[in-house]
Amino acid sequence: MRFSSLEQLMTLCKEESLSIGRLMVVEQARETGQSTEQIYEQMASYYQVMKEAVRKGIEEETKSRSGLTGGDARRVHDYGRVQQSSLGDEASKALAYALAVSEVNASMGRVIATPTAGSCGIIPGVFVSSQERFDWEDSRLVYGLFAAGAIGYVIANNSFVSGAEGGCQAEVGSAIGMAAGALTEIRGGSPEQAVHAVGLALKNSLGLICDPVAGLVEIPCIVRNGFGAVTALAAADMALAGVRSAIPSDEVIGVMLEVGAAMPEKHRETAKGGLAQTPTGRKIMEQLYGKKGGKPK
Amino acid sequence: MRFKDVFSIIGPSMIGPSSSHTAGAARLGRTARQAMGGLPQEADIILYGSFADTYRGHGTDLAIVAGLLDYDTDDERIRDALDLAAAAGLLVRFKEGRKPDVHPNTATITMRLGDTNVSVTGRSIGGGNVEIVGIDRFDVKFTANYPTLLIYHEDRYGMVSEVTEILKNAHVNISYMEVDREARNGEALTVIESDQRIREEVIERIRELTNVRRVSVIDLASKGGTP
């Protein structure tokens, strides 16, 4: 790729008069030697998988393999239809859809890792709910996925995208940044505004630890996907309104690396700290694995 | 750059719940199968670190076995892989291994097919991406992101140039290459990653070289492709 920072990405977009999404397709073709059509088709097929996961998570009450989670997406969705939700209909729908995809993931259903499986609900939650609201064509969202990918590429290569390496800020946080930047662009924001959205969003997830109860991608991962979708909407709104990230977004990514590296091991996907080691977290672990910390049955 | 393209960020399409523990594990299993050159009859799977601690909850065991059956990361049969393996005549055994300085998501898969034994050690590094770090007793490192040739041969002068000559004539671009040998003039393994898929007739020409014992091809992009 010809860029390794958001600054360089923005400059390239300006020079070539391309959106981040369109530029990413060209860069990917350059890197892999594949045609832009082939590359577009693969991403379009991924978007179909995302939409299917949203549908499945809302319509079928999914239960996770461990039996610990499931059905919350539907609960939030139904609540939004019956009562006035605090967030309002649109954000409430993004929240429900993000929970839906994350629940499908926990039930061993099909999802797209964006950037990981633990954070797979945020982008579909934001994208599919926005598409329904604004009645966009699929292609607009597919280019949006390329924009999200470009942003994630910069984060992954300058910081982390896995909870085991950098905590949940790296996983759910990266997904929020990617969704916020992409939505800003899809809604007509400039590459510069999209990049500010990334910084605004990432600043709000710095320090988020990875502490899955019993080591499973369920508690608190699923609800964090729901919150993440709503944060991404808020960051995109701020950026579109002209709010700038006072600390440049590349520097925020650098801080994510610093904070992640300083995080103790027990707060990095080991289930040895945080929510996983609360009295209830330990009780759940015992129920699943037995007293001696054996393995799930 | 650790992550090279847009689909290592958006993707893979996968069966949940964990890109490291499930999708990466399936890719490790598939790489092992292709290194073997077909469905093994037996497989001993040793899991280390976080793989050993949480494999059942994440379906890591199902995913590795699904890979051995040549299923891709988003194949819904992953959930039933243990039963399907038994039906296909594949006997699997799982063990938890302890090693002090191993990457937290590491697996060693030792397989037998007829008289041939192959052992593959790899680790899952996040987002479904993997790194293979050992084949049999050889320390070699590759990602399985590109078509990859594993050439077992004797350590003799000129071997590498004979192989690269064949690839040059076939217009195959080598993007990465590594050789490890057990001893001077002993057994060696050459790993070649290429930008393009390598045609069967080209592989056949390499197999026919004197001093080449065995060649296998790893190509995870070939859906359902059995080497």
UniProtKB/TrEMBL annotation, chain A:
The keyword Signal does not apply. Pathway: Carbohydrate biosynthesis; gluconeogenesis. One of its GO terms (molecular function) is metal ion binding. Its cofactor is [4Fe-4S] cluster. It catalyses: L-serine = pyruvate + NH4(+). It holds the Pfam family SDH_alpha. Its EC number is 4.3.1.17. It comes from the Bacteria. GO terms for biological process: gluconeogenesis. Keywords: 4Fe-4S, Gluconeogenesis, Iron, Iron-sulfur, Lyase, Metal-binding. Residues 16-276 form the Serine dehydratase-like alpha subunit domain. Belongs to the iron-sulfur dependent L-serine dehydratase family. This is L-serine dehydratase. It comes from Cohnella abietis.
TrEMBL record, chain B:
The keyword Metal-binding applies. InterPro entries: ACT-like_dom_sf (IPR045865), ACT_dom (IPR002912), ASB_dom_sf (IPR029009), Fe-S_L-Ser (IPR051318), Fe-S_L-Ser_bsu (IPR004643), Ser_deHydtase_bsu (IPR005131). It holds the Pfam family ACT. Transmembrane segments: none annotated. GO terms for biological process: gluconeogenesis. Keywords: 4Fe-4S, Gluconeogenesis, Iron, Iron-sulfur, Lyase, Metal-binding. Its cofactor is [4Fe-4S] cluster. It catalyses: L-serine = pyruvate + NH4(+). Pathway: Carbohydrate biosynthesis; gluconeogenesis. Residues 148-220 form the ACT domain. One of its GO terms (molecular function) is L-serine ammonia-lyase activity. Belongs to the iron-sulfur dependent L-serine dehydratase family. NCBIfam families: sda_beta. This is L-serine deaminase. It comes from Cohnella abietis. The gene is sdaAB.
